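Q: My labmate handed me this sequence with no annotations at all. I'd like to see what the chain might look like in three dimensions before we decide whether it's worth expressing. Could you predict it?
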Amino acid sequence: MKILILSIALALCATAEPAWLEDVNIPQKSALREISPTNLAYSMTWDGRVKAGSFNILFGEKDTRYPKHFLVRAYGGSTGWAHALFPYKFNYTSFLNPKTFRPIMFVGTEKERTKLDTLSYRFNSKGVTGTQKKTRDGKVESDASSFPYPYSLDLFSGLLQIRSMPLNDGDEVVMPFHPIANPYLARIQVIGREIHMGRRCIKLNVGLQKIDHDMSLKHYKKLKAATVWLSDDEWRVPVEINAKVFVGHVRVFLTKHENL
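A: Here is what I predict for the chain of 260 residues:
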C-alpha cells in the first residue's frame, strides 16, 4: 500500500503544471507587433572602460532562398582586448511567420577558438525541439532537447513580443521563451519613462530564471541584474542594455539604426 501511494504521488507531481505558468501574462497566439526592415548596430563595453564586442541585428533581411519567411539575422563577436582573451563570434538566423512574426525555426553557430557549437531548433504547437552540436578537437557531440511549452518564442520573436505589450508604467511582463539553446522565464518590470542617449525611452528591469528539464525554475547565475532602455516610439528597439553578469559589468548600446 505504501509503495502504491508513493507511486501515485510521484505521478501527480510529474504531471502537475508548474506554478510559474499562472504568472505568464503574454498573449499565447496573437500576432506580434510588426517591425519594418531595419538594421540595428550595437557596441559592447566591459566595466565601462574596455570595448568588448559589437554585433548587428537585421530585421526583415531579404533572402531569395526563403521567400515565405520573415528573417531576422544577428552576427558579431568579441573585439579588441576582449577578443585576445576570448575570441568569440556568432551568427544566428530566425525564421518567423511573416503574418504573425512567431518563430518557425532558429539556427545558429557560436565559435570560440577551436570550439564550435551548431544550433538548430524548431517551434510548433507542441513546443520546441532541437539539437546543439558541439565540436571539440574534431569530435562532435549532439545534445537533443525539448521544451514542451506550446507558445514558445525565440530570441528575436521574444523581443517583438515585449515591444508588442502596452508597457505602462508599473506593468510587469512575465514571458517564457527559448532564446538560443535553453528556455528561460523572463520577468520584466516597467520602471518609467525618461530621456536616454538622446531618445525618449521606456526603462525596464529584467530578471531571468532558467527553466529546467522538469519545468522547474532554477537560479540563473550568469545574470545578476539587467536594465534595458527601449525607445518610446513606433520602433521600440533596445537603445541600451546595462547588465551585471558573472564576469563584471557589461554595457550594450545602440550605435546605428537604419532602414534596410
